[in-house]
User: Which sequence fits this backbone?
């Protein structure tokens, strides 16, 4: 059967060493650092036993911005916020049913660092009315991402940190050991809700320090010692 429109280009993320990663879906985790949960007015668990279940949301695959390209300030908002995050890239389909931890970790082919850009005013308005806040999260250019680094070249995540600088000043910094749910935990939880597939990206949540970005701001996001993402917000 013939398409009635030209097929959209597949969103792809460059991979260190060559090749690209075709993006299927983008899953995002909310409130995965206790300090960020508290700064957003939510309760943070005192122990792993009190974690409950993670909060998930989505961004469209074509929300990615690659190649350290500039990011246009989005329409409809007066309060664009940055959230620096670890990104896990899945290189295999998950087997049917809930994942075991060792199965979950084996799905990860690469890691990167990204920004979960948020129209905070739109998100806040929707939350106050008990409505979905998709427009606050899933908009064009809302997922800048670095190149991906093969998982075999990334040290143990618990020894790494995330950092975001804006105009040369540190805005966010958090060690990955402070994640409430680590990567295998999150993939296990996602497997209870979705059939995970090769090509899925998972943005793992942000530490405290989220704040506004305005046109002219320049940012550097780091998975310290592994990869950096550079960019600027344009008007």
Assistant:
């Amino acid at each position: 059967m013939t398409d009635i429109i030209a097929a959209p280009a597949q969103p792809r993320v460059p991979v260190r060493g060559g090749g690209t990663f075709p993006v299927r879906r983008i899953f995002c985790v909310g409130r995965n650092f206790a300090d960020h949960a508290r700064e957003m007015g939510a309760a943070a668990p005192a122990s792993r036993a009190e974690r409950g279940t993670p909060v998930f949301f989505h961004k469209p695959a074509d929300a990615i911005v690659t190649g350290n390209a500039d990011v246009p300030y989005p329409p409809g908002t007066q309060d664009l916020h940055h959230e620096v995050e670890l990104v896990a890239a899945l290189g295999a389909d998950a087997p049917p049913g809930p994942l075991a931890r060792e199965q979950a970790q084996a799905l990860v082919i690469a890691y990167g660092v990204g920004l979960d850009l948020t129209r905070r005013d739109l998100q806040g308005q929707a939350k106050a009315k008990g409505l979905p806040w998709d427009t606050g999260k899933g908009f064009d250019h809302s997922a800048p991402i670095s190149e991906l680094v093969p998982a075999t070249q990334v040290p143990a995540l618990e020894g790494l940190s995330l950092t975001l600088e804006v105009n040369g000043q540190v805005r966010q910094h958090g060690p990955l050991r402070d994640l409430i749910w680590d990567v295998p935990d999150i993939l296990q939880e996602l497997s209870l809700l979705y059939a995970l597939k090769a090509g899925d990206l998972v943005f793992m949540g942000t530490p405290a320090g989220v704040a506004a970005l305005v046109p002219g701001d320049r940012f550097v996001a780091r998975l310290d010692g592994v990869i950096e993402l550079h960019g600027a917000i344009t008007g």
Remarks:
- The chain has one domain: 19-234.
